């Protein structure tokens, strides 16, 4: 009987040990899961405080916005359009809102680098200083016909002149309000290389190609100045100009000229 009880105790002993071992493993797993949960909770709280001011929603909306592709396409297209010197080289309008000081300052600008970074077709600037209408305008129309792009026209009539110019005329829209702005406006066009000051009584003696070729091939400017005895020449000398300008230095000069752009 005693042996039978011992055998029953020995048979039950492994079962008890196994149950105890399973209980310990279960407890160990619970502790491990609890620690992992606590670690995840702590990490989540930390990240939430760190990222609470980060504009995540804004970036997400920008990324998911359906208007993003057109914006990118338009920017790409815009970047392919090169402006360069286009606006600077474009001939300015004759009528603008620049004041005299602004205009003269702009016209006095001279490039320090002589070699141009672009192809330029030099033009002749015809500046008409008139008392009224250009009476020989039909002759000038024939002179300029067919040579567009090789000349520029600027006209300053007497301020009292109120005449109109036909819209199909080369002189239409080329009026300059003041005499001092005549040459300054011509200098604004970087393509103008030669400058001629004319009156309403001047006429061309040769055709346009001949005059254009001669002026562009010349290295001289044409300014009339000479010593003229008598009241018209030396008689206009004012002794108050001495000693800066002496009588032997005084010259009579014509207001009409042809000059080259400063290089």
UniProtKB/TrEMBL annotation:
The chain crosses the membrane at residues 30-51. Keywords: Glycoprotein, Glycosyltransferase, Membrane, Transferase, Transmembrane, Transmembrane helix. It is found in: Membrane. One of its GO terms (molecular function) is glycosyltransferase activity. Signal peptide: none annotated. Its main location: membrane. One of its GO terms (cellular component) is membrane. It is a single-pass type II membrane protein. This is Core-2/I-branching beta-1,6-N-acetylglucosaminyltransferase family protein. It comes from Quercus suber (Cork oak).
